[in-house]
Design a protein that fits this description.
Protein name (chain A): Small ribosomal subunit protein uS13m
Keywords (chain A): Mitochondrion, Ribonucleoprotein, Ribosomal protein
Radius of gyration of chain A: 19 Å
Number of domains of chain A: 2
Distance between the termini of chain A: 27 Å
Subcellular location (chain A): Mitochondrion
Pfam families (chain A): Ribosomal_S13
Distance between the termini of chain B: 66 Å
Number of strands of chain B: 11
Number of strands of chain A: 2
Largest interface: A-B, 13 and 14 residues
Oligomer: heterodimer
Strand content of chain B: 5-15%
Radius of gyration of chain B: 35 Å
Structural class of chain B: alpha/beta
Largest sheet of chain B: 5 strands, parallel
Strand content of chain A: 5-15%
Largest sheet of chain A: 2 strands, antiparallel
Family (chain A): Belongs to the universal ribosomal protein uS13 family.
CATH class of the largest domain in chain A: Mainly Alpha
Number of helices of chain B: 20
């Protein structure tokens, strides 16, 4: 097991997949991080020396990811709500925000749009 | 009745007797204009009126055919990690079912010595003013064949010669054999000697006193990789040290780890694991390294004894990828020291290194293949920037199957071939093409300012076999028992023509692999 930013990962997992499990890191950021530390895309977590893992953890801790990113997003929604905008209201009502029709297919909006949005 | 319905769109006044008799709803549907109504009637009327079991309804106790889907049978263990790859990459070099071909010559010192004698004869005759030696060793071959007296090794052109056991081991270690080649058909590995192979061998022998930089090019299936293998076999027989990169794409397609090399500008990238494997292959393939001791002093990250053999040095590098690159450099410095044997540096799949690699630099730009330390090393010698101090050759074979296109490489090779032929009009750069690469031109020894003093590389453009060679090859197949046909003029001519004027892989496909 390898410890990256407070999470444990199995040694045979690809590093880029591990990175992409963090909220806020997708293909683009994982590619950038791999390139920054000269790690090839097929590298598995277990192959890397502890030093590199620590460097990656340090890099991740400087980025706005996970809880920080979630909080930022909630703040953004709260701001919309506080100023009483239409978008804020739609978020609070759990309805589509960007002018979509609501006759059918608003499952995503129902699932996600809340003031205390999770992800 | 029906016509009435069309006009008035009213409910058809069907007599009940008609509807009851109508067994199929199709018939009722065929009534025009009131199809839906008819259906409604039909669905009502089609209901069975008797109290017996309905259609499609199960009766208790009735036997029905049940076909259960069986789960797929479990056959043994699932393949272990790496097992399938090992199967895929397995090289079979012998087939006990194939017949042994009597009277095969071996590619040994004697044969290579005969080719060397041929050079001397040619040189002597060139001095006497019969013909020009330089750049026309193929001509020598033809003239020599006509005379037939001088023992210049040209009698074997068009014959298949066997590889010696030691050479086979070495070739296997440098991964010169490929899975796509038909080694598994025959009793022992053999090579067809073509005119070009004799020419190349002679060039190699001459390169012991100089340097040879050569690119082997040709259409798909013309035997580029096999000519490279022939060169390696000759080099092993002559006691050279062979360093081979069997697949250039393995170096550039980002499947191995890499690390920036400090204090280099532009930054070079080493590939620790690949270099370690390469060192292990070099060590395995060149048994003569065991007899050579270190003669220079090196500053290496690990302490080494001053009197270890080069073989041991390679072993140390192969064991620890972290020190593989410094050890490779030390090993190379040893090879370039005085009194060492010539070196053959070879690479297959040239176009893979003539473009950007799949590796990413820290700023997420793509790393050019020439910025990979190993490729940089190769390219320095291919371009002529650095010289092999004890003689030797740098050979690269282009690949035409599953190879990326490199516009600059295509152009330069085309131009060089045209120059060699002495054509008046040389192909020029396409002014609208944007993907030309200066570094590629430099690597092949051409280009405006950056051109090296050594001049452009030589290009050996392979074509199909001659009919004589094709016949020799087919006779060998027949003697091995793989080709069950009479090999005569007609058969050879047919296969030769069908194979696009003797493209050797196509001849093989038509004669050996295709069973109709």
């Amino acid at each position: 097991m390898v410890f990256i930013l407070g999470n444990n990962f199995l040694e045979n997992r690809l590093l880029r997949h591990c990175l992409e499990t963090f909220y806020g890191i997708g293909t683009k950021h994982s590619t950038r991080i791999l390139a920054k530390f000269s790690i090839y895309p097929g590298a598995r977590v277990g192959q890397l020396p502890t030093k590199t893992i620590n460097e990656i953890t340090a890099e991740l801790s400087t980025m706005t990811i996970e809880t920080d990113l979630r909080r930022k997003m909630r703040d953004n929604i709260q701001r919309l709500r506080d100023m009483g905008s239409y978008r804020g209201r739609r978020h609070a009502m759990g309805l589509p925000v960007r002018g979509q029709r609501t006759r059918s297919q608003i499952l995503t909006a129902r699932k996600l749009n809340k003031i205390e949005r999770h992800g | 009745m029906a016509t009435n319905c069309i006009r008035c769109l009213a409910r058809p006044s069907l007599p009940p007797s008609f509807l009851v008799n109508a067994s199929s709803s199709l018939r009722i549907q065929s009534l025009p204009s009131t199809a839906s109504m008819g259906k409604r009637y039909a669905s009502k009327l089609n209901r069975p009126t008797t109290n017996g079991p309905r259609k499609n309804e199960k009766v208790k106790g009735q036997k029905t055919l049940r076909i259960k889907k069986k789960p797929p049978p479990k056959t043994g263990k699932p393949p272990q990690p790496g097992e399938r790859k090992a199967m895929r990459k397995r090289i079979v070099l012998s087939n006990t079912n194939a017949l042994e071909v009597p009277g095969m010559r071996e590619l040994d010192k004697g044969l290579v010595g005969e080719w060397e004698m041929g050079i001397r004869d040619a040189r002597r005759q060139a001095e006497e003013g019969h013909w020009v030696l330089e750049g026309a060793l193929g001509m020598v071959a033809k003239e020599g064949a006509k005379e037939g007296e001088a023992k210049n090794g040209e009698g074997v052109i068009g014959q298949v010669v066997a590889l010696q056991g030691q050479t086979v081991d070495s070739l296997r270690a440098v991964e010169a054999f490929k899975t796509t080649q038909g080694w598994g058909f025959f009793r022992r590995p053999g090579l067809l000697i073509r005119e070009e192979s004799v020419m190349l061998s002679r060039k190699l022998i001459q390169a012991e006193q100089g340097n040879l930089r050569l690119v082997i090019d040709g259409e798909r299936g013309t035997g580029k990789s096999l000519l490279l293998l022939h060169a390696m076999a000759t080099a092993f027989v002559r006691g050279w040290i062979v360093i081979n990169i069997p697949e250039a794409q393995e170096v550039t397609n980002a499947m191995n780890d890499y690390a920036p090399l400090p204090n280099t500008n532009p930054t070079l990238f080493t590939q620790p694991t690949y270099t370690a494997t390469l060192l292990s292959r070099i060590n395995k393939a060149n048994p003569i390294l065991a007899d050579m001791e270190i003669s220079l002093t090196h500053s290496l990250p690990i302490p080494i004894q001053s009197n270890i053999s080069l073989s041991r040095l390679c072993e140390l590098g192969a064991r620890d990828p972290d020190v593989a690159w410094p050890i490779f450099q030390a090993f190379w410095a040893e090879l370039m020291a005085e009194g060492m044997p010539p070196v053959l540096l070879s690479l297959d799949g040239l176009s893979n290194i003539m473009r950007e690699s799949m590796y990413l630099a820290p700023d997420t730009s793509k790393v050019h293949a020439h910025d990979l330390a190993l490729i940089d090393h190769f390219v320095n010698y291919l371009s002529g920037k650095r010289r092999l101090e004890n003689g030797g050759a740098v050979l690269a074979a282009a690949s035409r199957s599953h190879a990326p296109t490199s516009k600059s490489m295509e152009l330069v090779l085309k131009q060089l071939v045209e120059l060699q032929k002495g054509e008046e009009e040389i192909t020029e750069k396409d002014p609208f093409e944007k993907s030309y690469d200066d570094r590629v031109e430099w690597a092949l020894g051409v280009g405006s300012e950056k051109a090296t003093k050594a001049g452009p590389v030589e290009v050996l453009k392979l074509k199909g076999l001659s009919k004589k060679e094709a016949r020799g090859l087919m006779e060998y197949w027949a003697k091995s028992g793989v080709l069950r046909k009479k090999v005569d003029e007609k058969e050879v001519a047919e296969k030769w023509a069908l194979a696009g004027n003797g493209v050797v892989a196509e001849i093989e496909r038509g004669a050996l692999r295709m069973r109709i």
